[in-house]
Design goal:
The protein is of the alpha/beta class. The protein has eleven helices and twelve strands. The strands form three sheets. A seven-stranded parallel beta sheet has the order 3-2-1-4-5-7-10, with helices on both faces. Helix 1 (15-26) links the parallel strand 1 and strand 2 (30-35). The structure holds NADP nicotinamide-adenine-dinucleotide phosphate.
Length: 323
């Protein structure tokens, strides 16, 4: 890598991608970002924008050409699109990014998948990179298919590393973070969920992405997780850290499982997406989905901070923009 390396970033206008761009610019990188015509580019004026989408091969080629590292973050979840679009963006979009890298002069690819393609197996408490799980829903399936393409690219064509963030917490995320904060501090949000998850601060994921670019082994996968917490514990700790009053009523697992079929019905009739999206996801929401980041720690020097370290920034954003 040269003294002033160049990064190409897809998803540069998103929650994670915009923070990554800020960090790379602060570290002295030149940054090329992919932006759709309608994307909110925030204050990222120093980014060289390439306007188009993941279906636009020419834009992708100009985006990645000359980049030392291609951070492929653009992706879409079932909150914002139906299964077909999710598949097209996550799987087919990745295929096009790989093709652009193959055709052009591009260095290492760092692909952002999800920890959701891994789950604790059998009686294990935690999942690691080897715990490949049967995908549930189009989001996980499309990410798993994209991972295969990236692995194949790493075997035969170029350098590529895949990272698997768990649930990312931080300012600017109107979905997961806003909901978790609302459960912690809004008296009108009485719901607790059973089950548990790994919550990672957005700044820690950014550190992991940069470390994967610098020190990851091509062809390898790294879980970028945070603290493993039951939902109850996470909500109570947010309430304490934000000085709010935690919600007390717990939604039983049976009610969440029952919500699965209801969500399917609303989805079909009203063309609106309601979480949990189907029976299998309803089941998933009641499980303890805990992850170990040991491999990233040992090989990349990755570390994560406790939830409390991330609450003040997220809370400031929430009070200003959501509440
Ligand atoms: N947030 C999490 O908890 C989490 C956890 C694990 C993995 N991930 C993965 O991390 C990545 C970033 O997630 P995020 O939370 O930052 O999501 P986000 O805020 O929704 O950002 C998604 C980005 O992808 C872009 N994008 C979507 N469809 C596109 C298309 N067809 N063509 C070009 N760009 C497109 C969006 O552009 P616009 O600005 O125009 O919408 C945006 O820049 C995703 O791949 C996601 O699957 C996220």
């Amino acid at each position: 890598m040269t003294d002033s390396p160049t990064a190409a970033v897809t998803g540069a206008t998103g929650f994670l991608g915009s923070r990554l761009c800020e960090r790379l610019l602060a570290d002295g990188w030149a940054v090329h970002g992919l932006s759709r015509p309608t994307s909110d580019r925030g204050g990222l004026e120093e980014v060289e924008w390439h306007v188009g989408n993941l279906a636009d091969e020419e834009t992708l080629r100009s985006l990645v050409d000359g980049a030392d590292v291609v951070f492929h973050l653009a992706g879409i979840g079932l909150w914002s699109a139906g299964p077909e679009t999710v598949w097209e963006v996550n799987r087919d979009g990745t295929e096009r990014v790989l093709a652009a890298c193959r055709d052009g002069d591009a260095g290492r690819i760092v692909f952002t998948s999800t920890a959701g393609t891994r789950r604790p197996q059998g009686d294990d408490d935690f999942a690691d990179e080897t715990d490949v799980a049967e995908p549930i829903g189009a989001y996980q399936a499309s990410k798993a298919a994209a991972e295969e393409l990236v692995d194949r690219y790493a075997q035969a064509e170029g350098e590529a590393v895949t990272v698997h963030p768990t649930s990312i917490f931080g300012p600017g995320d109107e979905e997961f973070t806003a909901q978790l904060l609302a459960m912690g501090v809004e008296p009108t949000m009485p719901a607790h969920l059973p089950g548990g998850l790994s919550i990672v601060g957005v700044a820690d994921v950014i550190d992991g992405l940069v470390a994967a670019a610098e020190r990851g082994t091509s062809g390898e996968h790294y879980i970028l997780g945070g603290e493993n917490l039951t939902f109850d514990r996470a909500v109570a700790r947010i309430a304490d850290a934000a000085d709010g009053s935690p919600a007390r009523i717990r939604v039983p697992a049976t009610a969440i499982r029952a919500a699965g079929p209801v969500a399917e019905l609303v989805d079909a009739v009203a063309d609106r997406r309601v979480f949990p999206f189907d029976r299998e996801m309803a089941d998933l929401a009641t499980q303890r989905l805990f992850y170990t980041s040991r491999k990233a720690n040992e090989e990349l020097g990755y570390e994560y901070r406790p939830l409390e370290a991330h609450v003040p920034d997220a809370m400031d954003w929430y009070r200003e923009n959501v509440q």
